[in-house]
Amino acid sequence: MQSLQAPTLALGVSEGAKRRAVAGSRLARPVSVRHHRRVAIRNNAVFADADQAQRWIDAWKARLNAPRVVGVGSAGVDYLASVAAFPEPDQKLRTDAFETQGGGNCGNALTAVARLGLRPSILTKLSDDGAGKAILDELRDDGVDTAHVVIEPGKSSPFTYIIVDREGSTRTCIHTPGPEFTPKEMPLAAIERLLDGASLCYFDGRLTEVAIEVAKVAKARGVPVLVEGERLRDNLPALLALGDYVCTSANYPQDSNPDAPGFEAAMVAMASKLPAAKAIVTTLGSRGAVCLVRAPAQAGKAPSRAESLADVVSKLEKDAAVGMPAGSRGVPVPAWPVVSDAVVLTDAGDEAAAALGAVEVIFAPAVKLQKSSVVDTTGAGDAFIGSMCYGVATGMELKDAMRLGAYVAAKKCGSLGARPGLPDISEVPEAVFQGKEKPKVAAAAVNKTASRPPAVRKAKAPREMTDIDKEFADGTRKSIAPGLSKWMLKLGRRYQ
């Protein structure tokens, strides 16, 4: 390979690292690197030339300025068994494929956030067992900050058995929770440190006692709050009431409003009880997602018309179907979301309509995939919510964030498990962002002077990656730390 003159690199990289970056020589394997399946280093060469090295440096700098998303909720281990058809009682059968992967709604959503280029941090509780260590390792490999994870020695970390039925395109989960997480383990000072520099705080609806305390502090500090409602849980209504943005599963509105005559009435009734929420999003599986956005009152404007949500969604769904890309073995660009005028929804009666007020309805269709392209739907909702977190944190319009979520969720469904199929931002077509340049992360959204707290845990806390990132960027650190090697190699992979 032709030798190149070493360029001047701005980040305080050692001379040896410069030579390797420019000459494309093979990088010696760093200590304790587990070759994660997502890290595809071509011929073990990190960079082929100076331009490639500079692109990597620019990406590193961009990540330092990226919005920080804090997530509170579950992280665990998923044991996934893919079978031809769901077993009958007392039946024996063979698996077609078996995977052990990181899981948990919050862990999955934050992995999506990290791969889209932001800086996520997770608050959860694990134990010091082998599963707990594996959970932390996989999150760190994807660039999720785990410094705030609480560890209780001698317990079992959360895990889930998942049966993936290829014939019925379903997945059945059997979950074993981890150690109890109580508010006394997160004093106010620890919560304040957790939220330093946060652009968004996301809650997956679990660990609700701790989550409520964190959400209250986030609201007081002006940090936007996004809450997920997947299924009925203790204290979840109180947590949802704190959300600026609420995302639910298709079943949650009806489950939480069992007297409602149908889905639309249940969604309107649910939204009417969430006065703090600017937007309420419900995913509808293969149909897509619907969002109710509170319309701002405008003086002198005629009152909004009254209509049922069922009729509005039906019209929007028909409009969205016009020109929708046909299903293919790949993942096509999603169709455009469609937005209604401001309407007063009548499905749940006059009292609910008055409490909710006028809303705009957004319908974002799902990507149409051939059945043969769908390997596993586990974590598709988490992929969508991770995209919504990205959209809110970077200031995207809600309809555009929903469109991004449709694409990311579809990509995820092409692989077994919740995380292997999640795309990097470089893998998302420009057309998903309305054909414009992909949104640039806003440096102003991050408090870069905020102190980085020690881990709130009994076990020894790992050194925070964000601290070392800063040392590496300003030249304080003169060489690449072995502990960063896995993440750096993963980032470098995007610029091969």
Automatic annotation (TrEMBL):
Annotated protein name in UniProt: PfkB family carbohydrate kinase
The keyword Methyltransferase belongs to this UniProt entry's keyword annotation: no
Pfam families found in the cross-reference section: PfkB (PF00294)
Top-level division of the source organism's lineage: Eukaryota
Limits of the Carbohydrate kinase PfkB domain: 68-293, 343-424
GO MF entries: kinase activity
Membrane-spanning intervals of the chain: none
InterPro entries: Ketohexokinase-related, PfkB_dom, Ribo/fructo_kinase, Ribokinase-like
Keywords of the record: Kinase, Transferase
